[in-house]
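Section 3.1: Structural characterization of target chains.
Under the original work plan, the team committed to producing a structural model for every single-chain target entering the pipeline before any wet-lab resources were allocated. The record below documents one such target. The sequence was received from the expression subgroup and is listed exactly as submitted; it comprises 142 residues.
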Amino acid sequence: MAAPAPPIVPSTATPASPNPRQTAEAREAFTASLLSAGTSTIQSDLQNRATDLHANAAAIDRQEQELLKQTKNLGKESDKWQKVLDDGARGVKETGDVQNWAEMLERDLCVLEDTMAMVEEGAEAKDVAPGGNDGLGEEKWR
């Protein structure tokens, strides 16, 4: 085993009065060491933040590219739906045109039916001459 270390005894002698030049140098050395210690901490924090910013910028760029891709896909899908909508609208318009045509045809047929009914009523109410001639040179038709 090693021998125990001698006890530290405080010196009773008073230190010599410091030289102002030595005091200034000591103060500058102390300040420089504090600044370097603080600066290295600040610099490492700043470097960490800069690294994070660059990493985040890369992630944002990737997200931006993905967003552009998805936006293009959404535009294509929107165009498809617009085509389906336009086709449906065209079909509804054609149905409306057919319905309008059918209504006009029905109206014309009603007019013809009414006209024929009036002709038949007029022919029955009139005395017809023997031989089927009504006196106007036309034969009665039925």
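The radius of gyration is 56 Å.
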